[in-house]
């Protein structure tokens, strides 16, 4: 049993430090009235104390290396250790972006090689590595689209987004100055083609783009995607594809063949790099030939036997500029490159097929246990809801919390928002049949308990975890972000 772990502020003290600094010489005060007059208040600990603190915290958590992590919509998959070893090579990990380009030729070649692989896999013509994560990639794509439309003389006013979209899609378009209009989904969880056609044919052609995730957030493949692309292009709009779920179709189809104009790729979801949440991430964006000249700088070009960062020339004169310094998260790019090279195209294709197979295995095994809002074959994730348990008083949150006591991480819950009580499960391609069967048994056991007369224990779960059930809503809306002594 892990003992209670206090906060760093409770075990450290301001007069302690693990590092001895030499006395600092007097220097001219450049901060003026902005200088802080009180102590910073950071706790000081010895190195062993610091390591033990964070190790104990990690032991209180469920993570991919310790348990099944079926987090639909976020794709928490196993990260092969070979990726980590290659990213840690001194020639990659100990360089600096301000070094002269002739001293980092290997790093530039690695990025250049990855760009060729991503354009080959997607069928697109160019890629930008600036974005630091998926949502940042969306912003990159939409800024590029706006730059292209502005060059044509009309940036337009509206971006269309299906009601099942990721929340970052409308936020991104709004940040680019667009007005958001929602396109409904039909009873099958797919884009309502008639509604889209009606909107595109109304009044002036002021639609800049349509942002669509495919497979969508319900885990379904948009069967009419080529029709959608043709409708958009006829209306003079661009087709932006949110590539968050590209891991379900990589190696099987190329987005360019759908008529996609731009797409960001979540490397952590598709190419097995660590997940972005709070740590490193990367969201490169691929573009078709029309949009490529407007993408952000810098670009990497091969010049004979060497590589160089292209900042400006006639070809790049239409670029909207820089999104951030340098080329995104370099170590994540190396991890993705290692994954792609080790898998090869046949391996990537099998990964997508296995992800879809695993999700459909869970669909078949659980379709008589939980309600399927959209029956039929799914893609890489399967969507259930809690409507079959309404009379029991047990809901989606209770099921998720009870899974912690079974040793599994909960799945995504209450998303997508168009399905009440949503239970979105994504097993990924890396899990075995044995693990999936154990998960199915855990869900069946929880649902059987929910339908029994004595089911109130489920309202208290998790009972075995170090942290019991918390009021997460209040914690999110009224966080305590200061040391208790300051309250």
Explain what the structure shows.
Helix content is 35%, strand content 11%. It is α/β, with parallel strands linked by helices. The protein has a domain at 82-341: Aspartate Aminotransferase, domain 2 (3-Layer(aba) Sandwich), CATH 3.40.640.10. A 7-stranded mixed sheet has the order 1-7-6-5-4-2-3, sandwiched between helices.
Features:
Aspartate Aminotransferase, domain 2, 487 residues, alpha/beta
Span between termini: 31 Å
Give the low-confidence spans.
none
Main β-sheet description: 7 strands, mixed
CATH evolutionary superfamily of the domain at 82-341: Type I PLP-dependent aspartate aminotransferase-like (Major domain)
CATH topology grouping of the domain at 82-341: Aspartate Aminotransferase, domain 2
Instruction: Report the count of strand segments.
Output: 12
Measured by DSSP, the beta-strand proportion falls in: 5-15%
Percentage of helical residues? 25-40%
The first-level CATH class of the domain at 82-341 is given as: Alpha Beta
Mean pLDDT: 91
Q: What is the name of the CATH architecture of the domain at 82-341? A: 3-Layer(aba) Sandwich
Oligomer: single chain
Q: What value does the Rg take, in angstroms?
A: 25 Å
Secondary-structure-derived class: alpha/beta
What is the general shape?
A: globular
Strand order of the largest sheet: 1-7-6-5-4-2-3
Write the layout of secondary structure elements.
Elements: H1 8-11, H2 47-59, H3 81-87, H4 90-93, H5 105-122, E1 126-128, H6 134-152, E2 158-162, H7 168-175, E3 179-183, H8 193-201, E4 207-213, H9 225-234, E5 238-243, H10 255-258, E6 262-265, H11 267-270, E7 285-287, E8 299-303, E9 306-310, H12 330-366, E10 382-385, H13 396-405, E11 412-413, E12 422-425, H14 433-450, H15 472-477
Parallel strand pairs: 2-3, 2-4, 4-5, 5-6
Antiparallel strand pairs: 1-7, 6-7, 8-9, 10-12, 11-12
Helix pairs in contact: 3-12, 5-12, 6-7, 12-14
């Amino acid at each position: 049993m892990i003992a209670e772990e206090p906060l760093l502020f409770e075990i450290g003290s301001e007069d302690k430090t693990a590092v001895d600094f030499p006395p600092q010489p007097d220097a001219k005060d450049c901060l003026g009235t902005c200088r802080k007059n009180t102590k910073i208040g950071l706790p000081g600990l010895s190195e062993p104390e610091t390591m033990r603190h964070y190790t104990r915290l990690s032991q209180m958590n469920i993570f991919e290396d310790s348990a099944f992590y079926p987090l639909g919509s976020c794709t928490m998959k196993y990260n092969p250790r070979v990726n980590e070893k290659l990213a840690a090579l001194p020639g990659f990990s100990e360089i600096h972006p301000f070094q002269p380009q002739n001293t980092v030729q290997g790093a530039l070649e690695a990025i250049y090689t990855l760009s060729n692989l991503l354009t080959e896999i997607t069928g697109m013509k160019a890629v930008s590595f600036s974005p630091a994560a998926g949502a940042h990639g969306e912003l990159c794509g939409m800024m590029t689209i706006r730059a292209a439309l502005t060059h044509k003389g009309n940036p337009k006013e509206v971006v269309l987004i299906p009601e099942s979209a990721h929340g970052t899609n409308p936020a991104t378009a709004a940040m680019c100055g667009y007005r958001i209009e929602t396109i409904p989904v039909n009873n099958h969880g797919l884009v309502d083609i008639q509604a889209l056609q009606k909107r595109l044919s109304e009044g002036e052609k002021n639609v800049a783009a349509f942002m669509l995730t495919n497979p969508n957030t319900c885990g379904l493949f948009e069967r009419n995607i080529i029709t959608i692309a043709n409708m958009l292009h006829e209306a003079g709009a661009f087709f932006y594809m949110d590539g968050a779920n590209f891991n379900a179709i990589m190696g099987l189809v190329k987005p360019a063949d759908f008529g996609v104009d731009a797409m960001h790729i979540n490397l952590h979801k598709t190419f097995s790099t660590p997940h972005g949440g709070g740590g490193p991430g990367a969201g490169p964006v691929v573009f078709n030939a029309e949009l490529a000249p407007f993408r952000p700088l810098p670009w990497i070009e091969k010049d004979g036997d060497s590589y160089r960062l292209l900042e400006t020339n006639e070809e790049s004169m239409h670029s909207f500029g820089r999104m951030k310094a340098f080329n995104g998260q370099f170590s994540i790019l190396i991890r993705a490159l290692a994954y792609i090279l080790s898998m090869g195209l046949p391996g990537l294709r099998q990964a997508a097929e296995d992800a879809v197979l695993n999700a459909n295995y869970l669909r078949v095994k659980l379709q008589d246990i939980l309600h399927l809002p959209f029956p039929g074959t799914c893609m890489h994730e399967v969507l259930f809801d809690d409507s079959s348990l309404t009379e029991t008083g047990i809901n989606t949150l209770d099921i998720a919390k009870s899974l912690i006591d079974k040793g599994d991480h909960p799945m995504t819950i209450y998303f997508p928002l168009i399905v009440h009580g949503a239970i979105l499960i994504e097993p990924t391609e890396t899990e075995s049949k044995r693990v999936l069967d154990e998960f199915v048994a855990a869900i069946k056991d929880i649902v059987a308990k929910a339908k029994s007369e004595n089911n109130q224990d489920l309202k208290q779960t998790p009972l075995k975890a170090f942290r019991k059930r918390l009021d997460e809503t209040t914690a999110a809306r009224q966080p305590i972000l200061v040391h208790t002594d300051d309250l």
